[in-house]
Amino acid sequence: MSALRTASVIFCTFLLFSCGHSLPELPGFAAETWRRDPYACKNERAGQLKALLQHRELLYGTRADDIDALFGRPDEEELSEQTEKIYLYYLEPGLQCDPGHQRSAANKLILRFGPLGTVTEVLYERPPKGL
């Protein structure tokens, strides 16, 4: 009976950690350039938007840890009452570039994570210009 219980625990653990998929490859997206531009203050993220827009469907189902590896820590993070979280990445310079990084009306990439910790929505505060 002990072996059955151990096998059940291992199986459940495997299922828990297999939710979502691994770090996506976004063709044409230079992740290092994105990560080097926190808060978009150098305006280098704008050059990555075309590839991001073309392949954003690849982000759905991706785990938060893999998003952190791809984009770096979010510029801002929100938690909802429903065990969901939201990552915000600025796409253009704005007030967030001032000391203290206050919240800005500058355009943002918004990644919403569901209760399982995977991306459920990929949104923009405003549609990016020129794309």
Total number of distinct structural domains? 1
Summarize the amount of helix as a percent range.
Answer: 25-40%
CATH level 3 topology = Beta-lactamase Inhibitory Protein, Chain:B, domain 1
How far is it from the N-terminal to the C-terminal residue, by CA? 61 Å
The overall pLDDT average reads: 85
What CATH architecture label applies? 2-Layer Sandwich
Assess the beta-strand content as a share of residues: 15-25%
Based on secondary structure, the structural category is alpha+beta
- CATH class, please? Alpha Beta
Assign an overall shape. globular
Biggest beta-sheet profile:
4 strands, antiparallel
C-alpha-based Rg, rounded: 17 Å
Order of helices and strands: HHHHEEEE
How many helical stretches?
4
Largest sheet, spatial ordering of strands: 1-2-3-4
Q: In total, how many beta strands? A: 4
Q: Uncertain spans, ≥5 residues at pLDDT below 50? A: 7-18
What structural keywords apply?
131 residues; alpha+beta; Beta-lactamase Inhibitory Protein, Chain:B, domain 1; 4-stranded antiparallel beta sheet; 17% strand; Lipoprotein
Question: What does this entry show, briefly?
Answer:
With 131 residues, the protein is of the alpha+beta class. Helices cover 27% and strands 17% of the residues.
Report on the architecture of this protein:
- By secondary structure, the protein is an alpha+beta fold.
- A hairpin with a 5-residue loop joins β3 and β4.
- The termini are far apart.
- The chain contains 4 helices and 4 strands, in the order ααααββββ.
- Strands 1-2-3-4 form a 4-stranded antiparallel β-sheet, with no helix packed on it.
- It has one domain: Beta-lactamase Inhibitory Protein, Chain:B, domain 1 (2-Layer Sandwich).
- About 9% of the residues have low confidence.
- 21% of the residues are buried.
- The chain is 27% helix and 17% strand.
- The longest helix has 16 residues.
